[in-house]
Amino acid sequence: MSEHPSQIKKVVLAYSGGLDTSVILKWLQDVYDCEVVTFTADIGQGEEVEPAREKAKALGIKEIYVEDLREEFARDYVFPMFRANAIYEGEYLLGTSIARPLIAKRLIEIAKETGAEAVSHGATGKGNDQVRFELGAYALNPDIKVIAPWREWDLNSRQKLLDYAEKHGIPVEMKRGKKSPYSMDANLLHISYEGDILEDPWNEPEDDMWRWTTSPEMAPESATYVELTYQQGDIVAINGETMSPATVMEYLNKVGGENGVGRLDIVENRYVGMKARGCYETPAGTIMLPAHRAIESLTLDREVAHLKDELMPKYASLIYNGYWWSPEREMLQKMIDASQKTVNGLVRIKLYKGNVTVVGRSSDENSLFDESIATFEDDDGAFNQQDAEGFIKLNALRLRIAAKNR
What band does 156 get if pLDDT is binned at 50, 70 and 90? Predict the structure, then answer.
């Protein structure tokens, strides 16, 4: 057990209103005999969060926080991450990972506001999320107590949770129709699927599993073009219409999903040491990554761009492993943000049957592309091709010396 129950009088619970966290709420009251404060965040998961308020009231909770954090999530977490072109293990766009620092931050802030000594979450002892929540919590309040029920109780199956709920009169919403067998997590950046047939990496996902994206085979027969306006590395308008960060993501999720963009099926290395198979839909992110690289290709100095690429895997690992609130991530962020001052301009994207293609990029003020130098036609002396001879001979010098010794 994390702490002796008598030491904790009040705890803030990250509460979704679902089966797991409703059981946790009652379990905290019973085992720790403490007051529970609930915190429910709308970070774009696409489901109503207000029902969580009524469920918490029904379970006797007096201090209930239900908050719309979509803009803060997009502006302060997703957009800074995309300035770095972050991608984990070459494929994963970090959709679950990047939501955890914000939830950890609000848990700690609410604990301070309500005088709670502890925070609690519903992440299991096998996954990454327990690490992300708790590293964030300790970084923001070194004295906070953390209660992780999945590491303490013996309710380690869905049936045991249902039995506990029935025994204690916890209302469990039984959805009509076919219930999804997958463990899912959603926010503005993505929706993830784990469990059931996906636990065998050989099994292809069933087509009706996907919720946000049209199958590429069924996507429209004509391409969709989208024009993105960048200021200092962030998208500020789409097709000439100014949009907030969350609105940008909502729009790109919709248009990307309609065109079959953003499906991913991977086996990833979790921080706790095991491999896990997951499927993801990330339409907006799948558009944002190549688009951002396209505007950088025009506006970033070569060595700055290459240095960013060298630092990116480290930055991505820090986010995946839960170190958003670490000094090293904050140091890297300052470097990344400094590089983005000149990343301004337009990118034109073509979406077609699951594909995202950059078909145009321009920057009136910050382009480093000089057509008079790059041309294959007569450059009127803008570039002296004879200069290349000395450049090549100097760079070949060590190779020629080594060749003579052989």
Answer: confident
Nearest-10 Cα torsion for 168, 169, 170, 172: 130
CA atoms within 13 A on the CB side of 114: 24
* CATH of region 5-84+94-167, choose from 3.40.50.620, 3.60.20.10, 3.40.50.720, 3.40.50.11690: 3.40.50.620
DSSP, collapsed to helix, strand or coil, labels residue 266 as: strand
C-alpha–C-alpha distance, residues 213 and 281, integer Å: 7
- The β-bridge partners of 361 are 347
Q: Where exactly are the structural domains of the chain?
A: 5-84+94-167, 183-362
Does the predicted model carry a pTM greater than 0.85?
yes
**Residue 175 pLDDT > 80:** no
Q: Structure tokens of 377?
A: 């036609």
pLDDT of residue 176 exceeding 80, the answer is no
Positions marked active-site: 20, 100, 129, 183
Q: pLDDT of 339-352, one tens digit each?
A: 999 999 999 999 99
In angstroms, rounded to a whole number, what is the distance separating the alpha carbons of residues 311 and 208? 38
Give the HSE-up count for residue 317: Cα atoms under 13 Å, Cβ half-sphere.
9
Burial class (CB in 10 A: 0-12, 13-18, 19+), 162: middle
Side chain identity, residue 177: G
DSSP 34-84: -EEEEEEEESS-SS-STHHHHHHHHTT-S-EEEEE-HHHHIIIIIHHHHHT
* Cα–Cα distances in angstroms (integers) from residue 10 to residues 104, 112, 117, 149, 336, in the given order: 17, 11, 6, 15, 40
Provide φ and ψ at 14, rounded to 5°: -70, 110
Angle CA(254)–CA(260)–CA(265) in degrees, nearest 5?
110
Domain 183-362 CATH assignment equals 3.90.1260.10: yes
8 A C-beta contact, residue 326 and residue 139: yes
